[in-house]
Amino acid sequence: MKISVIGAGYVGLTTAACLAQIGHHVFCSDCDVLKLNKLQNGKIPIFEPNLQEIVVRQGRAGRLLFGSTAEAINHAEVIFICVGTPPLPNGDADLSSIEEVAQVIAKQARGYRLVIEKSTVPVQTGGQLRKHLSVHGATTLELDVASNPEFLREGSAVDDFLHPDRIVIGVDSKRAADMLMEIYEPIVKGTFQCPLHSVCERAGTPQLLITDTNSAELIKHASNSFLAMKISFINMVSNLCEVVGADVTKVAEGMGLDPRIGPAFLNPGIGFGGFCFPKDVQAFIRIAEKSGCNFSLLREVEKINQSRITHFVDTIREELWTIRGKKLAVWGLAFKPNTDDVRFAPSIALIRMLMDEGAVIRAYDPQATEKARELLPMIKYSANPYEAAEGADAILIVTEWAAFGALDWGRLLSLVARPLLIDGRNMFDAEKVTSQGFHYVSIGRSRKGPATKTIANDFQKPDRLVSALSDPTA
Ligand code: UGA
Description:
- The chain is α/β, with parallel strands linked by helices and 474 residues long.
- The chain contains 18 helices and 14 strands.
- It has helices spanning 10-21, 33-40, 51-60, 69-75, 96-108, 125-138, 157-162, 174-189, 213-244, 248-256, 277-290, 296-320, 346-356, 369-375, 385-389, 409-415, 430-435, 462-470; strands at 2-6, 25-29, 64-67, 78-81, 113-117, 143-147, 166-170, 207-211, 327-331, 360-364, 380-381, 394-397, 420-423, 439-441.
- It has a 6-stranded parallel sheet with strand order 3-2-1-4-5-6, sandwiched between helices. Strands 11-10-9-12-13-14 form a 6-stranded parallel sheet. Strands 7-8 form a two-stranded parallel sheet.
- α17 links the parallel β13 (420-423) and β14 (439-441).
- The longest helix has 32 residues, at 213-244.
- The radius of gyration is 23 Å and the shape is globular.
- The two termini are 34 Å apart.
- The chain binds uridine-5'-diphosphate-glucuronic acid (UGA).
- Uridine-5'-diphosphate-glucuronic acid binds at residues 120, 150-154, 224, 227, 231, 265-267, 269, 272-274, 276-277, 335-336, 469-470.
């Protein structure tokens, strides 16, 4: 099918590239001309595993083109809207980019168009979009508006697109439903050539859910808010574990064995970040509020999340006594591993708070340094974790990059001023770290060692940890 994708951010670019990968002819547009130039030269502006390769390959095959929004609207009957919906100061989602796109579609389109919202939007946006398209001149235009929310995690977005757990289609007409089913048929039937080969996390075919647009829009916000709630829940349990001397890893493991609960998203830490959970929880609260529902549960989720950084700083202070003048190695800046995204990353708020208390920061991240530098130009960045640790009074693990699991402990011990590892993501087994000569402090676990024997005597495999963190089916 011929398909257009408007917006070439994380979601748009992944959608465009993967739709081309499964055999469609895709035209992707963006209002950022510099970004478009890069993309036309086969360079992607973000770090997202496997995406660059697909963009280049599909570009060469002539199935993926980049250009202006006007060209995109002329290219196809099917238009995916993947533009940003950032938070406004009051927590509402800013839908102005969607409105702008609607205006261009209304003016430009000739003939039938299926306009699909993929960006995360408040419930009833589909209805507004339809109204707006008519108001701006498309009264004579044959038109369908559909919602097809994305469930792409940064760091595994390609895998999530090509091997989803579920595909949600919110439609108000059979024509739109049929077209969307045709678009996703290669994924539903598993008939496309998967470029990831053996590294795919999931196998099997996805569940296809067809519903109305309002319900589809709600599914997205409700899912992200629920996952955020799970994280805040386990973070509060971890606080309790610290006080009573229990091990949150074991508590989460025990809870997760109940299939009604499941083990995913029960990893405690310094809180959820990124461009999805914080803004989506906020927006969902506002949507409920405007509809007369007081979703105070989600206010608590937010509040708990905001308190994670302060809690971590308190832990650091307890270990160091005072923070002023202390050299701290911050390992990890991205809001999660396998991405270079630092938007709403806990690292940013943490570093600012530590600097306010007079700490001297040296940070390292395998991918996110350049993006973090734009937000935090005043700190020093290192080329590797060892350089960051030189002369440090403590090493702080802020993002659980798998590479941090493969350390030369002897080298590290010789570099630090004080062998103190404070782990905000519970990457390691306490016994192993302490046996290497480090004092180990983690989240919701005893500071001298685990309360009960852990599954492995060696390090918990970071890869396993990362996939458990990010795979809702794990
Ligand atoms: C999230 C959802 O998982 C996707 O399904 C959704 O499509 C996406 O938002 C979106 O709305 O576009 P993402 O933000 O990429 O994906 O990352 P997650 O893997 O969900 O992690 C979010 C944050 O929660 C990270 O800061 C992570 O460190 C934290 N987290 C996650 C925890 O603190 N504990 C956990 O157990 C899991």
